[in-house]
Design a protein that fits this description.
By secondary structure, this protein is an alpha/beta fold. Helix content is 32%, strand content 20%.
Length: 1060
């Protein structure tokens, strides 16, 4: 048969020849014809077809017809290398290859990086998996090539964030539904098995609260909740029962979860492998090929095989990963719906209850609404979607006999019957997915027994077992049990509240329950706390805190009651923005004031904290910054802050990281000449650092020594693969470094203009889990597997009987010397661009360093080895000239260390707090201010020390006496002793003095910057503007002027006067 020819005119005047091609299926021919018709009206079109229906073949056919006799150019763009390879293979089968240059298939990462060197302009740009096209890199294609036609291909034109595609694509063409494809035999029918609504597994999934940057469940929380042996055993039992001997794919929550599943399945005779982003590319290809050939039964992954993976004989898909993304759900189940000659049907095993929030895969979707952004492609609240799946009909007696945690939601035969008969109710089409109507919880009666049960939609959730159902509200039901007792149960029959025997139960607003007792009187139960009141309560809110008003008194809604159950009058309530003050003078015996300076006995009161539904606390201390110290009923104390003077860096990081990513995506940084210059000038470290961070993020933040061997050992093919695969993640890391450098240099210029110099601190060592050790293992004492031979630390002393085990890799100083210490010179040259003065930590390590065998639990078995000494600093001085350096020479100091500090010419450090420490091994007199040499820097304390106030409170009485005697001061109150101690080092001979702001302010150890060898509580203090009072400014100015330490130059003074 000769092909039919059609000539379609298009708005741009281009004549496109359309050839009917009989190798395409009927629906593919239909979609191609519709596309060419749409191109007469629109330049940019998105095509939606379900997973497994041949989008790639349609794409290739469209491209071939587009090119037919036209001499046009076509670019096909995908977001992953595997998709690029798959499309190239399909396109080549259609007679189009790279040779003639008319068709180019490439990743969006490669195109973004090389767009400027591409020859010519494309006439057509095809976007595969076009639901990713909202990323800024794709948008650049629209801006750069506005005249080119655009074709987007996807199975799921939806996004979690409800963003539509209409600013990129003019229109959407949708194909048949999944149900129609199954009915016509183009997709496989399926059996759908799921965990039960009231199962332990479903409750675990429902407990997930945290969200990631993409709006989906947070991987870390999912892994913590679901990656457990009991859960993995349940997964295996599901496969054993419903898919024994079948070939399948499992979707896990994390890499660790995937590996645990594969190991467990293999241990029980199911040949399984886990493939993840850490699997080397060659090994991944081999394992996939073994799976295709049947040598491997099960592939376990996170989301590598969600898109573009084609293996028609997959017989089951197991969903072990919860998701809020409709796209992810349909892409994953779609891996099992492809037809195969020897496959009757597919088994979908839903171990996370996704069908309850998305419906079955055959549910019809309003793709047009999602495409336009009128509807989000996300999970709806369970009360809206409960059982839109829906279950296979079965008698109540059968259902009551089932006690297992799984249920058959749909069989493939029933599904085919429903599709062929157009039974929309059984397919869950009682309303559009994501609509506003609710699937109501209702009562249902068994005529034979006379008992009542509960159902959602057409599915029985609780078999008839109640004598009466009084009332239903949302997902709760007030019922009478067989034994005459009454109570409240949830939609699955789980008991929530027991109310004893009564006439009637009725739900009220505000999570209250009205109980009519047998004598006809009413009482009221608070469903939040399960406490009962004789008068009807009214819910009142104070900020984020709820109280119940009962008559003229108020009561807490926390689960643990306020000490006075009689309530309190409204005049007794004081709301302070983050807690509610409840005066009560009956102080528990276990309650003590934290500090009498903070509060007096009449200030002790009960309080309810915002966001805490557990209990009422006793307030035992009020701080000047409005934070409070509270005690719970078990005698535990907590510091509660609001508008606090400390910084939650974890919260800042988690909140700002997605915003920084969004800023990067909108920045067009690749067009910024200053950015390009920064990247080029810093390529000696930035290239490796950015790749390291991108790969580390891909591997869920694990140490690099746990990465796959190919990238851990920096093999060439792996380096090329990840630079391509993670191109945008790498550029994002470089962008953040560029923005930091740009903003930091502006800050430094401002400070320098005001006569302020910035002292920067660099450690002598780097961390084992760092870009330095990964990129340059030759610089460190590592073995051939890049495992440390020895690590750094300090020997036992008066402060620690076992010494300090730091764990940093030690330098291979011989190699550094052979290379002229180039790494150190480059490192110092860069930090001198950032800082005016550099303080080098643990300076004594350049003279001798303490070497501890790797794997030791303490530093006891360590020994001293010689460092590079002055040889390093001569080379640095030769390359960089004289630079202002502070040598941190604290701790155990030998004569050779003193000689090194003297020969280097760098000032050492003197810390006043060390001068009176009885634990010191004999060098305390070095820290007495009258012994300070001129070439030194005097500190009251460093960031690693206690504040002066905290230090004074921690030293012994003898040490306090020695300090006062040295000061010749027995009269200054302890609260003001920080001032004479500051004056003491100010009048020393030391060239420089450094006074921490905490010491000027007289703050205690709650404001301490860092406690060495601890994590979680450090680097949180910050000074607030209102603490920099005029009085404090005058005190600092006076003491500085008094001891001749004004470094205010005339130029700075003139500039300051000019600003006034």
């Amino acid at each position: 048969m000769r092909p039919s020819l059609f000539l379609l005119s298009v708005a741009t005047g281009i004549r496109i020849m359309y050839c009917k091609n009989d190798c395409l299926r009927d629906y593919q021919q239909e979609m191609k014809l519709r596309l060419f018709e749409e191109w007469e009206l629109h330049r940019s079109v998105m095509v939606q077809m379900p997973t497994g229906t041949g989008k790639t073949h349609l794409l290739a056919a469209i491209v071939r017809e587009f090119l037919c006799g036209s001499g046009s150019r076509v670019w096909i763009v995908a977001h992953r290398r595997e998709l690029v390879e798959q499309i190239e293979e399909t396109v080549s089968r259609y007679g189009m290859g790279r040779e003639d240059g008319s068709v180019r298939v490439m990743s969006i990462q490669w195109l973004s990086r090389n767009r400027k060197i591409m020859d010519g302009q494309p006439d057509l740009i095809v976007i595969d998996e076009a639901h990713h096209a909202l990323a800024e890199t794709y948008r650049e294609l629209w801006k750069s090539y506005p005249e080119a036609r655009k074709l987007g291909m996807t199975a799921t034109p939806c996004r979690l964030n409800r963003k539509g595609f209409t600013d990129l694509f003019d229109t959407l063409i949708t194909s048949w539904s999944i149900a129609e494809f199954i009915g016509r035999g183009w997709l496989s029918s399926f059996d759908y098995v799921s965990i039960r609504a009231n199962s332990r597994e479903q409750r675990l999934v429902d407990s997930l609260k945290k969200r990631g940057a993409d709006g989906d469940y947070q991987v870390k929380e999912m892994n913590a909740v679901l990656n457990r042996e009991t859960g993995i055993r349940q997964l295996y039992e599901s496969v054993r029962r419903y898919a024994a001997g079948k070939k399948g794919i499992v979707y896990a929550v994390s890499i660790a979860h995937a590996r645990q599943i594969a190991a467990y399945y293999s241990l029980h005779g199911v040949e399984s492998v886990a493939i993840d982003s850490k699997t080397p590319a060659l090994e991944r290809g081999r394992l996939v090929e073994d799976f295709r050939r049947g040598k491997i039964s099960v592939l376990v992954n996170v989301d590598i095989f969600s898109e573009g993976f084609d293996c028609p004989d997959v017989e089951f898909v197991q969903l072990a990963r919860p998701t809020l993304s409709l796209a992810k759900y349909l892409q994953q189940v779609g891996r099992g719906l492809r037809k195969s000659d020897n496959k009757e049907s597919c088994v979908l095993i839903d171990n996370v209850g996704l069908h309850r929030i998305f419906g079955l895969p055959v549910r019809d979707r309003d793709w047009e609404a999602m495409f336009e952004g009128r509807m989000a492609g996300n999970a709806q609240p369970r009360t809206r979607m409960e059982n839109n799946g829906l279950s296979v009909s079965c008698s109540l007696s059968e259902d009551s006999k089932r006690n297992e945690g799984l249920e058959i939601v749909m069989t493939h035969n029933c599904l085919l019957d429903a599709v062929r008969n157009g039974d929309l109710v059984r397919l869950g089409e009682d309303g559009p997915a994501g609509g506003e109507q609710r699937t109501a919880l209702k009562a249902c009666r068994d005529r034979q027994s006379g008992l009542w049960g509960l159902r959602c939609g057409n599915k029985i959730t609780v078999i008839p077992q109640y004598r009466e159902v009084f009332d239903i509200c949302a997902n709760r039901a007030a019922v009478r049990f067989k034994d005459g007792r009454t109570g409240v149960v949830d939609k699955s029959g789980v008991l929530m509240v027991v109310t004893g025997c009564c006439r009637r139960l009725r739900f009220l607003k505000g999570e209250l329950l009205s109980v009519t007792k047998e004598d006809g009187s009413d009482c009221y139960t608070d469903l939040k706390t399960n406490r009962t009141y004789q008068e009807r309560p009214v819910v009142f809110s104070y900020g984020g805190i709820e109280l119940l008003r009962v008559g003229e008194t108020f009561h807490s809604r926390t689960r643990k009651a306020y000490a006075s159950m009689h309530g309190l009058h409204k005049d007794s309530l004081c709301f302070y923005g983050f807690y509610l003050k409840i005066p009560d003078y009956r102080v528990p015996k276990s309650c003590r004031l934290v500090d009498p300076v903070w509060s007096a006995i009449f200030d002790v009161f009960a309080c309810v904290l915002e966001g805490d539904d557990e209990e009422v606390y006793w307030c035992c201390g009020c701080l000047a910054d409005r934070s409070i110290v509270v005690m719970d009923g078990e005698g535990n104390y907590y510091h509660v802050e609001k508008g606090k003077g400390s910084i939650d860096y974890k919260k800042i990081y988690e909140g700002r990281y997605p915003l920084l990513r969004k800023a990067y995506e909108r920045s067009k940084v690749h067009e910024n000449a200053e950015y390009q210059k920064f990247v080029e000038e810093n390529s000696w470290w930035l290239s490796d650092y950015a790749l390291f961070m991108a790969v580390k993020d891909r591997f869920d933040g694990v140490e690099w020594k746990l990465w796959a061997d190919d990238i851990k050992l920096r093999w060439g093919p792996a380096m090329d693969y990840y630079r391509e695969e993670l191109y945008f993640d790498i550029e994002f890391q470089q962008y953040m470094q560029f923005k930091f450098y740009e903003q930091w240099m502006q800050l430094k210029a401002y400070a320098n203009k005001k006569g302020i110099q910035i002292i920067g601190d660099i450690p002598i060592y780097v961390a084992m889990d760092s870009a330095d050790t990964w990129a340059h293992p030759e610089l460190f004492q590592l073995d051939e597997e890049n495992v440390p031979v020895a690590v750094a630390g300090c020997p036992p002393d008066g402060f620690s009987a076992t010494g300090q085990l730091w764990g940093n890799p030690l330098y291979r100083w011989g190699y550094h010397k052979e290379t002229g210490y180039q790494w150190w010179i480059s490192r110092l040259a860069y930090v001198f661009r950032l800082y005016d003065v550099v303080r080098i930590d643990h300076f004594r390590g350049f003279d001798e360093y303490f070497s501890i065998p790797y794997g030791a639990e303490t530093a006891v078995d360590g020994h001293w080895e010689k460092g590079p000494g002055m040889d390093l600093f001569w080379k640095v001085r030769e390359a960089l000239g004289e630079k202002p350096v502070i040598a941190e020479d604290l701790g155990y100091v030998t004569d050779s260390v003193r000689d090194l500090v003297r020969d280097s010419g760098f000032p050492g450090m003197k810390v006043l707090e060390f001068a009176f420490d009885s634990r010191d091994s004999g060098s305390a007199n070095d820290y007495l201010p009258h012994n300070y040499p001129v070439n030194s820097v005097a500190y009251t304390g460093t960031h690693d020390n206690e504040t002066l106030v905290g230090w004074w409170g921690s030293i012994s009485k003898d040490e306090q006496r020695l300090t006062r005697e040295y000061l010749c001061d027995t009269y200054t109150p302890e609260a003001e002793l920080n001032k004479p101690l500051i004056s003491l080092i100010m009048r020393s001979a030391a060239k420089w003095c450094v006074i921490p702001m905490q010491d000027y302010l007289g703050l205690d150890n709650k404001c301490r910057m860092n406690t060495p060898s601890t994590v979680g509580t450090n680097w949180k203090w910050r000074i607030r503007k209102n603490q920099l009072s005029v009085k404090l400014q005058k005190e600092i100015h006076a003491v500085t002027l008094r001891y001749g330490r004004m470094n205010w130059t005339e130029d700075v003074e003139e500039a300051a006067e000019a600003e006034k």
